[in-house]
Design a protein that fits this description.
- The protein is of the alpha/beta class.
- The protein has two domains: 8-65, Udp-n-acetylmuramoylalanyl-d-glutamate--2,6- Diaminopimelate Ligase, Chain: A, domain 1; 70-190, 3-Layer(aba) Sandwich (Udp-n-acetylmuramoylalanyl-d-glutamate--2,6- Diaminopimelate Ligase, Chain: A, domain 1), CATH 3.40.1390.
- It has helices at residues 17-25, 47-59, 68-72, 78-85, 114-125, 154-159, 174-181, 190-193, 195-209; strands spanning 8-14, 30-35, 62-65, 88-97, 100-113, 131-134, 139-145, 164-167, 184-187, 212-215.
- The strands form two sheets. It has a six-stranded mixed beta sheet, sandwiched between helices. The chain has a four-stranded parallel beta sheet with strand order 3-2-1-10, with helices on both faces.
- The two termini are 34 Å apart.
- 40% of the residues are buried.
């Protein structure tokens, strides 16, 4: 029910009231997000969810959410971008989730002290990591990347032979999990690690279709 023609697209990590209002204010006819409004179960359109939907409808802005496909995409995915920006060699998919390998890992050309890898990640995302667990070797050489909230996939990271794991966020219990595996873990921030895919998708669509595009930065610090 939106505009028949799309000339401007907004991109954001999260589908929320703030990004919806910013997309409409920017004159976008379509907003593409990584985290959308609806997941597996039916929901009632009441409260904040109703207000979000109403904002889009009244603003004439469509919404397209792309979650796991944007984590695992080999060209514009979050993890493909992480691997590229971290300059990982021989990058390969790993980390099975719902039937697909969503992570990408590879080798550093030269082993790096952990703090140097942290700095490289900071430059890639534009944000300092939330937490660093130095439970592995002092120099990182084999790095596995799974953006967002993937601490529960630490077993697969270790089994794949990586000595350092980069993901977004964690919870208390995974501190000892990393220690017992002897694994370095860099929590780069759920939000920060998942800005990369929507930005890459924005560049791709701009080049392919000549669309005007804007990235809406609404960081959570998490």
């Amino acid at each position: 029910e939106g505009p028949d023609e799309v000339t401007k697209v907004a991109f954001a990590v999260d589908g929320c009231q703030a990004t919806f209002e910013q997309a409409i204010a920017a004159g976008a006819q379509l907003l593409i997000v990584h985290h959308g409004l609806f997941w597996a179960d039916p929901v009632r359109l009441v409260g904040p969810l109703f207000r979000r939907a109403r904002t889009l409808i009244e603003g004439g802005c469509g919404l397209y959410a792309v979650h796991l496909p944007l984590d695992l995409h080999p060209d514009v995915g979050n993890n493909a971008e992480l691997a590229r920006l971290l300059e990982l060699q021989d990058a390969r998919p790993f980390g099975e989730y719902h039937g697909n390998d969503i992570g990408i890992g590879g080798e550093l050309d030269t082993p790096l002290p952990l703090d140097a890898l942290v700095e490289r990640l900071t430059q890639a995302t534009g944000s300092s990591p939330v937490r660093v667990l130095a439970h592995g070797p002092e120099e990182a050489s084999r790095v596995g990347c799974i953006s967002g909230g993937a601490a529960m996939m630490m077993d697969q990271v270790a089994e794949a032979g990586f000595d350092t794991f980069i993901t977004g966020e964690t919870s208390h219990s995974f501190f000892h999990h990393a220690a017992d595996y002897g694994l370095n873990v860099i929590y780069g921030g759920h939000y920060a690690t998942e800005t990369l895919g929507v930005k890459a998708l924005s560049r791709h669509l701009t080049k392919k279709f000549g669309l005007a595009a804007t990235f809406l930065d609404v960081p959570t610090g998490m």
